[in-house]
Amino acid sequence: MSEKCPLISSVWVSDIGRFPEACREQCEELWERAIATQTPAIDDFTDTLATNCPHPGSEYLDSELSRHDSGPERRYAINDQCTRCGNELCSEHFTFICPYN
User: Fold this and answer.
1) Ramachandran angles phi, psi of 80, nearest 5°
2) Could you give the CA distance from residue 74 to residue 16 in angstroms, rounded to a whole number?
3) Are strands 41-44 and 73-82 parallel, antiparallel or unpaired?
4) Cβ(74)–Cβ(20) under 8 Å?
């Protein structure tokens, strides 16, 4: 399967509804390699008023794929949430190039 990337017509997609099959078949190995070899860029949301959370502990919330501009660069993000209140706490981002852009 070498389809056009589903993210060409969408800015991002979450794994809550499962990633499109084309993403999993064509790019999952690429984002897994990025996770294994890159230091993640981390967005910490706990310092903003909207998600200021005093509770200790976090757990996996979901992951997302997103694109930048209309180019082939993609970002795989792993999002964590508070174990008590469910606020989104942080996101780790890994970048890779989609060969099917």
Assistant:
1) -115, 155
2) 18
3) unpaired
4) no
